[in-house]
Amino acid sequence: MSNFRPFMQAVYSNFLGHSPSWYKQLILAFLIANPLIDLLLGPVVSGWLLIFEFIFTLAMALKCYPLQPGGLLAMEAVIIHLSEPSHVYDEIAANLPVILLLMFMVAGIYFMKGMLLFVFTKLLLNVRNKTALSLLFTLMGAVLSAFLDALTVTAVLISSAVGFYAIYHRVVSGSHPDMDHDHSNDDNLHEDHRMELDEFRAFLRSLLMHGAVGTALGGVSTLVGEPQNLLIGEKMGWHFIEFFINVAPVSMPVLICGLLTTVVLEKTGWFGYGARIPQPVFEILREFDEQEQVSWGFKEKSELYIQFAVALFLILALAFHLAEVGVIGLTVIILLTSLNGVTEEHRIGRAFEEALPFTALLVVFFTIVSVIHDQHLFTPVIEAVLAQDLRSQPVMFFIANGLLSAISDNVFVATVYINEVASAFEAGRISREHFDTLAIAINTGTNLPSVATPNGQAAFLFLLTSAIAPLIRLSYMRMVIMALPYTIVLSGTGLLSVWYLI
Predict the structure, then answer these.
(1) Which of 287, 384, 410, 501 is 20 to 30 Å from 340 by CA-CA measure?
(2) Cα torsion 155, 68, 446, 352: sign
(3) Burial 7-45 (b: 16+ CB within 10 A, else e)
């Protein structure tokens, strides 16, 4: 007995790792309460409670990655028969294209990072006008996300920013190039360099936020831009070009207004934008890039050319729908690794590190969706919306999806709503034309207003939890404030476009 208390304390300490104690206690309370509520009040009440609990884990992603607490809740839901294992499997099988997208496409783009890093570096060093540079970062984020993947594009932006920051910090700290250097430690900086560094941080913050918003602008418009897009496209039977054309009446006006917002923010300096790169910082980065270019041999140049060629193949393969998106991603992996000599298993394995945690979380999403289906939880909500006049239904879906996506996760919200609307179509309650309209409203509603918080956009959350965020002093609230003007413009433009153009 003397060892029992320390043992239990160790078990509690290990549970959910370094998450706050109040968070651990709340998750334990959820797990204890759910079976009791199911027994006393029935599966519908406990099912709704489960949804709110799961959304809570998504909203608290910075306290603990949602896979663990959300997964425990999903497992408990199956144990108390809110859904069945076979139904969960059916849900996963129906969404296999989305899982393949995350597994293989994100990993495939990992092997293009050299090419993408080259492009962003050249932009930074050759475009001296900050407004033009910001516009290009937003546009590049949009274009790349439309054909690649928002998470991967954000990863490249982060890698570029960390590289720029580390180069400058090492030089002004007086650290020798061959020595290890901690670029998070400012102890060796002179006071003048500290002021330069603060300006440089503000400069990088604004570029990264422009680029992250760009991933949302481009991500909404194509089949592969965001995970939920492929899910919606699969339900609708839309291929790459068809998806783009259907969503364009909303996505194109939003893109134009988003780019105009970038210009206004840089010109006015509102919401933390407008910072310029200090000249000494620019000179250090330029000299470093010139030294790097001189050291390049035919091997490095050939790798870069091959990455550009495979990127072109990727765009054509997606445009002409040569295969399922995930299969195209696997093709990209095979081409880039074989042609550029990446043959070691551990080097290939690194490519999957970014995608697989989110893929696992998506499977947990599908378990919650299976509960929603089995208990018909959203049926009254969908029926209430479908009871409204046809003209107002798309706008109502856009608003409902936008609000939920901003506080939880847009993939989860889109999964729930598109499944419910698809069920209404299969039951003959709505026409195919109206089904198309509602699908566009769901897609744009989950993609655009979700830039309001890091919870809604996986790319934003990835940026906030990355190595660059503490270096450039990018906190949760600072990100929310910097995203606010984009949130207003993108949501407002999207809403008006849904009302008047579809």
Answers:
(1) 287
(2) positive
(3) eeeeeeeeebeebeeebbebbeebeeebeebbeeeebee
DSSP secondary structure string, 420-481?
Answer: HHHHHHHTTSS-HHHHHHHHHHHHHHHHSGGGGSTTT-HHHHHHHTSSHHHHTT--HHHHHH
Distances (CA, A) of 66 to 73, 396, 461, 500: 10, 28, 12, 38
Instruction: Return d(Cα 286, Cα 122) in angstroms, integer.
Output: 10
Rg (the chain; Cα; Å): 24
Closest listed residue to residue 111, CA positions, set 310, 355, 316: 310
Q: What is the pTM of this model?
A: 0.79
- Nearest alpha-carbon partner for 378 in 408, 337, 423: 423
> In degrees rounded to 5, what are phi and psi of residue 340?
-105, 10
Tokens 């360099």: give the residue.
193
Contact present, 224 and 318 (Cβ < 8 Å): yes
Q: At 360, which amino acid appears?
A: A
Q: Which helix (H) or strand (E) holds 343?
A: none
Q: Which stretches of the chain score pLDDT less than 70?
A: 1-2, 149, 174-191, 354, 408-409, 455
Q: Is 223:233 a contact under the CB 8 Å cutoff? A: yes
Let me know: does 217 contact 142? Beta carbons within 8 Å: yes
Sign of CA dihedral 24, 28, 31, 37: negative
Q: How far apart are CA 258 and CA 483, in angstroms?
A: 11
DSSP 37-55: HHHHH-HHHHHHHHHHHHH
The Cα–Cα gap between 136 and 139 comes to: 5
Largest CA-CA distance found in the chain, in angstroms, rounded: 73
Neighbours of 477 (CB within 10 A): 7
pLDDT of residue 176: 57
For the segment 211-269, what is each residue's pLDDT rounded down to a tens digit?
A: 999 999 998 999 888 878 888 998 898 988 899 999 999 999 999 999 999 999 999 99
Q: How many CB atoms lie within 10 A of CB 407?
A: 16
For residue range 19-68, list pLDDT tens digits in order: 999 999 999 999 999 999 999 999 999 999 998 898 888 778 778 888 89
